[in-house]
């Protein structure tokens, strides 16, 4: 699945990445089918989620305070147990 989770990164690391200037996204608890067309890096301010890759019963769980990198091309279901509030950025698209 190759989701990379960095638990509780330092405020310096977040500042160096410019996380505070990234757009924000939020969602209520529930299940969401998502496809990541580009690699996403996100920082969860609030919430908790289990991510299930399409066709798998295995999951990765992360939540508030985690810096997460989600690979390009991942089709998955987000099972959100606590309201999500996150900063995010996508890598620029690559030319074919």
TrEMBL record:
All residue ranges annotated as the (S)-ureidoglycine aminohydrolase cupin domain in the record: 15-88
> Could you name the domain of life of the organism this protein comes from?
Eukaryota
Q: Where are the transmembrane segments?
A: none
Q: Which PANTHER family did the record assign?
A: OS02G0620400 PROTEIN, OS04G0445200 PROTEIN
Q: What is this protein called?
A: (S)-ureidoglycine aminohydrolase cupin domain-containing protein
């Amino acid at each position: 699945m190759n989701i990379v989770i960095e638990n509780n990164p330092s405020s310096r690391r977040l500042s160096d990445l410019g996380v505070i200037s990234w757009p924000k996204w939020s969602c209520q608890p529930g299940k969401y089918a998502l496809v990541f067309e580009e690699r996403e890096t996100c920082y969860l301010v609030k919430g908790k989620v289990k991510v299930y890759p399409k066709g798998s019963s295995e999951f990765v769980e992360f939540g508030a305070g985690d810096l997460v990198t989600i690979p390009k091309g991942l089709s998955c279901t987000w099972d959100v147990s606590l309201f999500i509030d996150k900063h995010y950025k996508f890598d620029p698209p690559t030319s074919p």
